[in-house]
Specification:
Helices cover about 55% and strands about 5% of the residues. By secondary structure, the chain is mainly alpha-helical. The structure holds zinc ion (2 copies). The site of one zinc ion has 7 residues, from helix 5 and helix 7. Belongs to the fatty acid desaturase type 1 family. It is found in: Endoplasmic reticulum membrane. Its main location: endoplasmic reticulum. Keywords: Endoplasmic reticulum, Fatty acid biosynthesis, Fatty acid metabolism, Iron, Lipid biosynthesis, Lipid metabolism, Membrane, Metal-binding, Oxidoreductase, Transmembrane, Transmembrane helix.
Length: about 375
């Protein structure tokens, strides 16, 4: 185990000027230099402050396009008219009617089917939270090939667009948060941020800025690109066929109940839990880290979205693998990543030092000094 302090002198001039150009935020720079790494090479859960290799910092910053862009300005004049995508409206309506019906079928379901539904919920949610979000969108830790395959399969079960598209939308959400270029701009209201953005054509700025986002790291990931090229088949099998056939084949559940409960109801619940991060966690809760932005700390959303509700923290420090100041508290996704580190399947988890968090709280927080 080696625990040495990070040092600015480790950077040569070129790397330092690149760093300074990319991040005009002294605090963020300080935070990155104080990043602690929790990896498979460490013993147990010991968090080590280690000297970060300069090339590692350069690579991370070049390919990370999720930091708020203060230079973007919305275009003046009236907003473009809303154009509904009727196919999505009808499909979402059918899904939610089916899920509601599935809810009333719960008493008719076998115990094994209900347990299986919960497992499917967790499995598919992890494909979004630990996979598309913390690994691929923010590169907040590194995952081995088997873990990336596992996360891509579970991501297909969640059926929230393929990983590539999810990452593009999410980096845009952070970089242009709550502007016209944010795919689910919460300033357009709860319904729009929750589901409405999927039911209509995107704002032209979302398309324009989305095309310019740096996604080279994602394009270089064979697992992501394989999932993208086989996406329709993978969602058909993982999101619909498998959750319906497994209860029927292994413990004799009726196909009817299996289709409505572990398939449709579970799918709709994971969707809504994820959407609540975009809607409720941008509106309800306190802002201990940055009161100048709308994302908030919301423990209820964190519970439903297995750890993704600490949203004021997350928008302030998007590169923290725990997406929260409080590690594993209400945060099954962080527990999962820590377990993967212990098993040697994940490494290099980035987190923020307590001093940096406290300094930020004092400077821009709302004074609530608590989370949730
Ligand atoms: Zn957000
Ligand atoms: Zn994020």
């Amino acid at each position: 185990m080696f625990c040495t302090e990070s040092s600015l002198s480790r950077l040569d001039f070129t790397q330092w000027s690149l760093f300074a150009k990319l991040e005009n935020d002294e605090e963020l720079k300080a935070a990155i230099f104080k990043m602690t790494y929790r990896g498979s090479r460490s013993s147990g859960t010991c968090v080590e402050t280690t000297t970060i290799k300069p090339e590692e910092i350069g690579e991370d910053l070049v390919s990370r396009d999720d930091v708020f862009d203060t230079t973007y300005r919305e275009k003046a004049g009236p907003k473009p008219p809303r154009k509904l995508v009727w196919r999505n409206v009808i499909l979402m309506l059918l899904l939610h009617v089916g899920a509601l019906y599935g809810f009333f079928l719960i008493p008719a379901a076998k115990f094994h089917t209900l347990a299986f539904s919960i497992i499917c919920f967790m499995f598919s949610a992890l494909g979004v939270t630990a996979g598309a979000h913390r690994l691929w969108s923010h590169r907040s830790y590194k995952a081995s090939l088997p873990l990336r395959i596992f996360l891509a399969v579970s991501n297909s079960m969640a059926f929230q667009n393929d990983i590539y598209e999810w990452v593009r939308d999410h980096r845009g959400h952070h970089k242009y948060s709550e502007t016209d270029a944010d795919p689910h701009n919460a300033l357009r209201g709860f319904f729009f941020a929750h589901i409405g953005w999927l039911l209509q054509r995107k704002h032209p700025d979302v398309l324009e800025k989305g095309r310019k986002l740096d996604l080279r790291d994602i394009e270089a990931d064979g697992v992501v690109m394989f999932q993208r090229s086989h996406y329709k088949k993978s969602i058909l099998v993982m999101c619909f066929i498998m959750p319906t056939l497994v209860p029927w084949y292994f413990w004799g559940e009726s196909l009817y109940v299996a289709f409505y409960v572990p398939c449709l109801l579970r799918y709709a619940l994971v969707l809504n839990a994820t959407w609540l991060v975009n809607s409720a966690a941008h509106m309800f809760g306190n802002r201990p880290y940055d009161k100048t932005i709308n994302p908030r700390e919301n423990s209820l959303v964190a519970l439903g979205a297995i750890g993704e509700g600490f949203h004021n923290y997350h928008h302030t420090f998007p590169y923290d693998y725990a997406a929260s100041e409080f590690g594993e508290r209400y945060n099954l996704t962080t527990c999962f990543i820590d377990l993967m580190c212990l098993l040697g399947l994940a490494s290099d988890c980035k987190s923020v030092s307590k001093e940096t968090i406290m300094a930020r709280r004092m400077r821009t927080g709302d004074g609530s000094h608590r989370s949730g």
